[in-house]
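wait is this the right file?? whatever heres the structure
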């Protein structure tokens, strides 16, 4: 059923819809948390942005510490 182009497009549309709903849920709960704790929503949004970026930042720092330039060096070291 999902091996056709139409099926794959349907899956992608459904996943984007779920992503949109999840983002709405996060924003709603951040506003609720801000009202409960009396913290500005802007501050909580900035914290959410920092926490969302932490995995990428940690990977970048790890690459610098290990002196890895690109993916080819990573593949070469794993052989």
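ok assuming it is, sequence goes like this
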């Amino acid at each position: 059923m999902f091996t056709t182009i139409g099926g794959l497009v349907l899956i992608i549309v459904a996943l984007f819809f779920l992503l949109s709903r999840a983002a709405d849920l996060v924003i709603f709960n951040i506003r609720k948390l801000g009202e409960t704790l009396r913290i500005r929503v802007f501050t909580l949004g900035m914290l959410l942005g920092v926490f969302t970026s932490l995995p990428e930042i940690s990977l970048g720092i790890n690459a610098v510490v290990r002196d890895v330039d690109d993916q080819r060096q990573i593949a070469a070291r794993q052989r």
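The helical segments are 5-37, 41-65, 71-78. so i think its the right one actually
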